[in-house]
Amino acid sequence: MKTIVCVDNRMGICFNGRRVSRDRIVSEDILEMTRGNVLWMAPEADKLFKEVFKAKEEVCQETGTGKKIQDAGYLEDEKMWKVDRNFLEKAEEEDFCFVEGENLAGYEGKITEIVLYKWNRDYPADVFFEVDLSKWRLEERKDFSGYSHEKITKEIYNRQGLL
After folding, report:
1. Quick one: which of 153, 144, 156, 158 has its CA closest to 118?
2. How far apart are the C-alpha atoms of 148 and 114, rounded to whole Å?
3. Which of 109, 118, 130, 147 could form a disulfide with 153 if both were Cys (CB 3.0 to 4.6 A apart)?
4. Which among 29, 32, 33, 40 has a CA at the least distance from the CA of 100?
5. Ordered structural domains, the chain, with CATH
6. What φ, ψ does residue 13 adopt, rounded to 5°?
């Protein structure tokens, strides 16, 4: 499975049961990256992607482009992700998993790719991303501007020796 995680400068993910931050441009990028694949997430994360999908649906209706959401490539009523409390168990090898506070310790052997979105800020956190990235090879790094973050860094890691 391919995991997607958003972290701060100290690899913090959550504080007091809530995500440390969010940005709709990141959600849009995740939907674009996972297009044509299965994207799993916990019920709490569903809202992030529903908001992006709804915004794209409204743009489609306003511009009169018909049933097709052309900039996303999806039908209005099509949902591109699956929501389940036990999504890490259900995810298959090529599936993507959006991880916010779930413990990955028992799943490291199942992970083939890690996508990190770095906020490039310090936030209070009590849940951290704890996968040892020294066993992974950085394949791609890209900086971009978010909606509420001046600079977001996207990094894609593959397990060393797999490629």
Report:
1. 153
2. 23
3. 118
4. 40
5. 11-100+111-159 (3.40.430)
6. -115, -45
**Torsional sign, CA 26, 4, 32, 87:** negative
> Would the CA dihedral through 97, 101, 103, 108 be positive or negative?
positive
Q: Tell me what pLDDT residue 94 has.
A: 93
Q: Retrieve residue 105's tokens.
A: 């310790």
List, for the chain, all residue ranges whose pLDDT scores fall below the cut of 70. Answer: 53-79, 161-163
Structure pTM? Answer: 0.84
Show the tokens assigned to 155. Answer: 């990094």
Q: Tell me the one-letter amino acid at 33.
A: M
How far, CA to CA in Å, does 13 sit from each of 77, 82, 98, 117, 130? 31, 21, 12, 11, 10
Q: What is the pLDDT of residue 104?
A: 93
Structure confidence at residue 159 (pLDDT): 87
Q: Tens of pLDDT along 123-152? A: 999 999 999 999 899 999 999 999 999 999
Q: What is the dihedral of CA 156, 53, 14, 85, to 10 degrees?
A: -100
